[in-house]
Amino acid sequence: MPAENTQPKYRQIADYLRRGILDGTYPAGQPLPSEEALAKQFGVTRPTVRQGLTELRAAGLVEAIMGRGTFARSPHKRPSLTRPRGVRRTPEGRYVEADGIRWTDSEDATITRTDAPLDLADLLRIPPGEPMFTYDALQTADQGRLRQLHRTYVPFSVLIGTKYETEAPPAAPELYAAFADMGHELHFTEYVRPRMPLPDQAQALRLPDGVPLLHVLRLTTGKAGKPLILEEFQLPGDDLELQYPL
Question: What are the pLDDT digits (tens) for 18-41?
């Protein structure tokens, strides 16, 4: 005689649906059984069903769409968007992203003076607390379907002796051309890691519950490997993969 399942009912519902999503019973993008059907199947109330679905949303396995229902999100599904990473210079001297996406700021970038925190100071090889120009922008493309948060850091010390000692420099990527015109041969290194978004980041990127973001740091170096610019890109991590040539 099989042992009785002593787990709470909401957990039993979550486990049942999780198995179905992972084994393909409920393919990605397909609706799950309705709350009413699950409540009848497990002999519980609809709030108990919602508690189980909440657990799956937190794990990134389902997505609730207002007025339509709850849909499966498979961790094995290939992303619909692959973005090559890299920077190239056009014959006209402009620097553009390798993916060719034309990003626009949804509103004017916010420019502030910040002091370098310890972790960023280490990457930029500057003393912690050194002042930096910081640019923040929510950027969109493809009529708002694609979104990213972009932040640019420029230490004051790398601007000494340039015209930007007395005026704010442009944000990247225009800033690349400015440094190239000063005689720097630019090189780029990126560091990528996933993490869960803060509430305001999830809202700006329109991330469903339980979906991480991709946090990309791009370090631009010039003469003798001197760090010049540090950028942060925060990208939706649900239907996107990044491609790097090796």
Answer: 988 888 888 888 889 998 999 999
Q: Considering only CA atoms, which of 31, 33, 32, 29 is closest in space to residue 76?
A: 29
Confidence label for 204 from pLDDT (cuts 50, 70 and 90) = very high
Q: Are 172 and 180 in contact (CB under 8 A)?
A: no
54 and 87 in a common domain: no
Cα separation, 93 vs 51, in Å, equals 56
The answer to whether residue 1 is domain-embedded is: no
Is the domain of 26 the same as that of 108?
Answer: no
Nearest to 235 by CA among 197, 179, 188: 197
* Per-residue pLDDT, 203: 94
The CA–CA distances, whole Å, from 242 to 31, 116, 121, 125, 201 equal 28, 28, 26, 27, 20
